[in-house]
Amino acid sequence: MSKSSAETMKREEMKVLDVLEQHAKNSISELSKRCGLSSQKVARIIKNLEKKKLIWGYSAIADGTLRDFKHYVLLVKRNTVPFDISFKKELVFDKLDDYLPDLVKIENIYLTHGSFGGVVTFYAVDLLSAKKLIQEISKKIGNYFEVYLLLETLFPMRKFGLKNPQLNKLVEYL
């Protein structure tokens, strides 16, 4: 494959991904119109990206308030204790979900470089449930992390690249 055709393929993949991230519910025909590519090419690109596990899955992005959930961000600061192999496996293979209190739904977990070593975003019914999550996490991984900073999200302006359709309510929060 020539360099220019590889670049073209990469550009087309990125175009399809960009459109798919915003319009995943659309048909292949609608996606192809948005991309300016044939339906067959778009279908082939999506199938290839799924096969390579570059597309992890598809999800609906819902307003958490519909379920009476509040959104939280937890920043955790690492200490100098290195992760042991069993903890690494628990972290990677989602075994930590076994320790979650009821009424808490984990959204994202990131290992980060910087002032904080990890970020957890989650939904909980109230502040008490969110703090219970911190207690449970601290019991399980307390020897690897030393500071827990909990933030409550007041209003999401964007989620997963999508603008909140209720942005007019944002004025109340500013």
How many beta-strand segments? 6
Distance between the termini: 53 Å
What is the helix/strand order? HHHEHEEHEEE
Biggest β-sheet: strands ordered side by side in the sheet? 2-3-1-4
CATH superfamily heading of the largest domain: Lrp/AsnC effector binding domain/regulation of amino acid metabolism (RAM) domain
Q: Which structural category do the helix and sheet elements fall into?
A: alpha+beta
Total domain modules: 2
Q: Helical segment tally?
A: 5
Give the DSSP E fraction (strand runs of 2 or more residues): 15-25%
Computed Rg = 20 Å
Q: pLDDT below 50 for ≥5 consecutive residues: which ranges?
A: none
- Main sheet: strands, sense, barrel: 4 strands, antiparallel
CATH topology of the largest domain: Alpha-Beta Plaits
Shape: globular
Which CATH first-tier class of the largest domain would you pick?
Alpha Beta
Q: Approximately how much helix is present in the residues? A: 25-40%
Query: What's the CATH architecture of the largest domain?
Result: 2-Layer Sandwich
Mean pLDDT: 85
